[in-house]
Amino acid sequence: MIYDIRHKTTFTYEDVVSVAHHVLHLAPRVHPRQTCLETALIVDPTPAVDSGGDDYFGNPVRYLTVQEPHEELIVDARARVEVRPAAESLILAASEPWEAVRRRLGDELQAYEFSFDSPYALGNDEVQDYARQSFQPGRPILEAAMDLTGRIFREFEYRGGVSDVSTPVREVFAMRKGVCQDFAHLQIACLRSLGLAARYVSGYLLTHPPEGKEKLVGSDASHAWLAVWAGSAGWVDFDPTNNLVPTVEHITLGWGRDYGDVSPINGFIVGGGSHQVSVAVDVSALRE
Q1: pLDDT grade, residue 89 (50/70/90)?
Q2: N-to-C CA span, the chain
Q3: 96-123 per-position pLDDT tens digit
Q4: Which of 69, 92, 100, 265 would be 142's cystine partner, CB 3.0–4.6 Å?
């Protein structure tokens, strides 16, 4: 599937910003099932410094410095991406027992580093007890992960406005409410509480308008899910917001320990006072 993506962010400031430094994770990552065909970035005002590369986790990253005084900053990122289905169908019950995968982690350093707590994905005893209901002794890791995915989907209500990126997992667990990034952080904390490796995945999801309705421009949004390291099966993605294993309708921007590693735009400014942020995202499928 080929997609065109547009992610436009507008910052409007109460006072003049004299200098702004920003770190961007807005270019889709390349991986075995995804190819980034082209990207473009328009920033207004034009940055005095604009450089790019890869971050620690191998995600494309862009560094901007705007030195022109401004009361509004527009960051307009565009990309064309190809996403392909997996070469083989995934048989969850054929995966290794989760305890065996955990024992192997110490020899897989690139996965092992994702087994520790991180700022946005801190677990506790309650979270671990919740995870153990799915991860029974000897159960195949992917079957258990899918069961946990389904339980979060059924037992937690998707509701915006009750949390933000800094809401701790323990509060989301107590409220039983949140949005996609909350559910991803919760499932990551569950998996890590058992000594397994899990990473946060940032990206987009192709949405479908109601039957008979046209898709509204800018009505899409960033999405978040997670991946668990499953031994010989490698990294496998799960989406607890939608209770599924992502396929060709999930477009990956990047991955890290949690949201803090791959937030779309981060940084600091000098001046500005209070500000408002407006985000418009469009994901359009061109062809299969």
Answers
A1: confident
A2: 4
A3: 999 999 999 989 999 999 999 999 999 9
A4: 92
